[in-house]
Write a structure and sequence with these properties.
Length: 379
């Protein structure tokens, strides 16, 4: 059976050599804009492509403001800072995520609390979130206090895993009730909509990544988006060394960061963004082909959850057991078809092993069974 899957993937990609998990594709204006950028000499922290990108992505997402950053991790870091997450605060997130989500919480001196995901979305479960808050917290002086640690739970950071939208409207309502600041990690979900609204626009802030493996890439890059003008200004200020605007004076009014996206990366990204709709279309076509194929197998292909339109950034199947998963990983990778398990769950990593957790039944179940399949756009 695994041979049939390998054969099917090879036939789709028409490839005899190694099939990567996710490769970027440059067939638009990338070289043109990069050349223009180099010719202008404005390759670094000042230049028109950054402004152009911020305007275009904000428009695409349906968000009022966007601030481009060096990568998705720095976008997460700044988002938590402007959410007022401070030393010893706590932030709720998923154990089933990429390490950057949790690292950004640590950068602020705060601690993550890991809550379970839903099996059908792979994203933070609103039920698990509500149960955790109801059993472990007290709401006092408009603050959500953790009964176990006595610390304030300041923010909640769900992630739209592999591009599949989570139940973020329900999460938003719970966060509102407990005065918890909602930031959505949309690093993987550019082009994914929930109830016809782009992911990342339910919370106060959304972040994205444009790393080489994401749906569009700037080589390295990220962005923060929000409808709140104050937050957008703060994000811009903090990512640009907190410099006070002046014709020539160099004055900085707080400890800022050099997290701005270079113009060279933005030039590449503007060209990539022009092809985003095309990429999403092709990725959805690929997902449909996988879905049709796996119907006739014992393995469950992950279709987009209810009420959502997914970008299908990474396609995945759920195998029957960990041993079957390991066999599949071995067989496919030996045969040059790159497949990958999910990330080691955050609460199992040495730096987060003492973190507080809710019940993580679904996360543990999925971690043993999920395998990501080659998902590059087929032109
Ligand atoms: C890629 C990714 C990030 C980090 O983005 P970088 O640009 O690599 O720093 C954060 N969160 C998730 C879920 C990601 O997949």
């Amino acid at each position: 059976m695994f041979e049939d899957i390998i054969h099917f993937i090879r036939s789709m990609y028409g490839e005899d050599s190694i099939i990567p998990l996710h490769a970027p594709y440059f067939f638009g204006n990338e070289k043109k804009y990069l050349n223009e950028c180099i010719d202008s000499t404005f390759v670094s922290s000042i230049g028109g492509y950054v402004d152009e990108f911020e305007e275009r992505i904000a428009h695409y997402i349906g968000s009022k403001y966007a601030v481009a950053t060096t990568n998705g991790t720095s976008a997460l870091h700044i988002s938590l800072l402007i959410a007022n997450v401070e030393e010893n605060d706590e932030v709720i997130t998923q154990s089933f995520t990429f390490v950057a989500t949790s690292n950004a919480i640590s950068y602020c001196g705060a601690r993550p609390i890991f809550i379970d995901v839903d099996r059908d979305t792979l994203g933070l479960s609103p039920v698990a979130l509500r149960v955790f808050l109801e059993t472990n917290t007290t709401f006092k002086n408009n603050k959500c206090i953790n009964n176990v640690t006595g610390r304030v739970i300041k923010a909640c950071l769900p992630m739209h895993t592999y591009g599949q939208p989570c139940r973020v409207d329900e999460i938003r309502d719970i966060c509102f009730k407990y005065n918890i600041f909602l930031i959505e990690d949309c690093a993987e979900s550019l082009g994914s909509f929930y109830k016809n609204q782009h992911t990342g626009t339910f919370g106060k802030i959304g972040i994205m990544s444009f790393n080489g493996n994401k749906i569009i890439t700037s080589g390295g890059g990220g962005c923060i988006f929000t409808d709140d003008e104050e937050l957008a200004k703060k994000a811009k200020h903090l990512t640009t060394t907190s410099k006070v605007p002046h014709k020539w004076e160099y004055t900085h009014d707080m400890t800022g960061y050099n997290y701005r996206m270079p113009n060279l990366n933005a030039a590449l990204l503007v060209a990539q963004l022009e092809n985003l709709d095309n990429f999403v279309l092709k990725k959805r076509k690929l997902a449909l082909a996988y879905s049709d194929f796996f119907i006739n197998t014992p393995y469950a292909f992950m279709n987009e959850p209810e009420n959502s339109k997914s970008n299908y950034w990474l396609n995945l199947i759920i195998l029957g057991s960990k041993s079957q998963r390991d066999l599949f990983l071995n067989k496919t990778n030996i045969n040059g078809v790159m497949t990958r398990p999910i990330w080691t769950l955050m609460h199992k990593l040495s730096m987060f092993k003492d973190s507080q957790c809710g019940t993580l039944t679904n996360s543990e179940w999925l971690a043993q069974r999920v395998v990501c399949l080659p998902s590059s756009v087929i032109i």
